[in-house]
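Sequence in, structure out.
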Amino acid sequence: MIRTLAGLAAGLAVALITIAAVEAIGNQLFPPPAGYDMTSGSSETLPFETLVWPAIGWFLGAVAGSWVAIRVSGERWAGWAIAVFVLAATILNLVLITHPPWMIVAGVIAPVLGAWIGQMLPKGRPIAAD
């Protein structure tokens, strides 16, 4: 039980840190245009180069977080739990801020695909029997 909770906590922390790091890199490489009002509640007017980084972050966060959760907990379902956390946070973001349709689709697909890939990565130790 403790190992499972530790895996979930570690996976969630890794997912959040990964998402924040990818978005920070994206903001450094492709900052919002000068004069853009960040409090407008809409990201639809931002260029693609700026908007693609959060979607990449959702994907990589789910990959890294699910991989860590599975490795620490030894449970395959822990990776899917991380995907649910990332998906819930993404949906909250999509509800609070208006996004272009492609980003909404990416926001739903990226965490699920990321968790699936995270489960396919090389295993550091055997997974507990299901």
